[in-house]
Amino acid sequence: MVDVQALARILDDAARDVRAVPKLTGTAPLDVPAAYAVQRAGMELRRRRGERAAGVKMGFTSRAKMVQMGVDDVIWGLLTDRMLAGPTVDVSRLIHPRVEPEIAYLIGREVRSPAEAESAVAGVAVGFEILDSRYRDFEFTLPDVIADNASAALYGYGTWHAPRDLSNAGLLLEIDGRPAQAGSSAAILGDPARSLRAAARLALGAGIALEPGWIVLAGAATAAVPLPKDAHVRVTGAGLGSVEVTT
Ligand code: OOG
What we know:
It comes from Actinomadura meyerae. GO terms for molecular function: 2-oxopent-4-enoate hydratase activity. Residues 97-245 form the Fumarylacetoacetase-like C-terminal domain. The chain is an alpha+beta fold. Helices cover 23% and strands 28% of the residues. Strands 1, 2, 3, 4, 5, 8 and 9 form a seven-stranded mixed sheet that branches. The radius of gyration is 17 Å and the shape is globular.
């Protein structure tokens, strides 16, 4: 038996104390369904502190990320209002942050089936995600990272644009003006729209409908890079402009 509440608290404390913990599967027989239960319980702790769900993030939707992290299945997690990064991020509140370029979707109306996902999109933008695994050395198995809300920490996005074909948009991540990662949105399941539909399907499977105003992050197109202190990060998407953040 897995003590879902206790495991959720371990990860929640780790994030709040800015202290990495060993992976849960080292001591608990955590499978994927139990891991999502831990993720939900962690969200409930945040909700009780006044955080509100603000969207869904997809993970391991690209080969580059699967290879980087050594896992091979798509996962999802929830974003909250408090995870939205301001223009400046205090990295001392994070354990070992990494940043990756993203495609962001703005949901315009409730999505009641995966088939409705694309037509419900009100805008698209270039975005970024700041990951911060609560596990020591970013080392985890699939259930571990699911329990840890897919390493979600902070996110941001640029100006919203009218929905468009994003099956092959160039993405560039620069740190202090130097290219750190470059890729194409095609790396995201062949087309980030596929990831959007998967987000709707997975969330609906858990009884959660994508809501108006929610954000869906389709998953990184490249590997993630360490986010240092005193850094200036810019992510640019072809035809989508840029989004910047300073640490
Ligand atoms: C897990 C999160 C992966 C992505 O875009 O693939 C992810 C991790 O790498 O720590 O968000």
